[in-house]
Amino acid sequence: MIDQSDLKAQLTALLADEEDWIANCAQFSAFVFQFFSGLNWDGFYFKHGVQLKLGPFQGKVACNPIALGMGVCGKAATTGKAIRVKDVHDFPGHIACDPVSHSEMVLPLAVQGKVLGVFDLDSPQRNRFTQKDQSLLTDLLEILIEKTDFKPSGLL
After folding, report:
1. pLDDT tens by residue, 38-71
2. What stretch of H or E contains 110?
3. Most buried one in 2, 11, 100, 121, CB count within 10 A?
4. What is the pTM of this model?
5. In this structure, what CATH number is given to the domain that contains residue 97?
6. How many structural domains comprise the chain?
């Protein structure tokens, strides 16, 4: 993987001339999939009532919808806290979208203090995600939030 500051600069440049939330979330997902090794899926789920609905993603087909509070994504969306899971098969209530996935990291997407949804990453490797990964992805999500107008999404 390239240097963290280079990743931040590249993402900032990639999103510099676009504010559309769908375009930016699609670019963000592709960007992360390209630069983070060992992933088999990454993408967004957005809150719609009492569910999370699938947004832009990279990888195989995904589970949709997910009830708030269910699985790793639903729990992160309701608590507003990032969750790293070493082996999803040991996570109570895990929703198995892809049986080859073993580890997962889910980060809340919060704009103006409101959790709009989550960014989810899956890997076939056990214990793939570190605190360093979480910190970097949190910083990258902040760039996405800064460059994106989420108001037209109806989520704000």
Report:
1. 999 999 999 999 999 999 999 999 999 999 999 9
2. strand 103-111
3. 121
4. 0.95
5. 3.30.450.40
6. 1
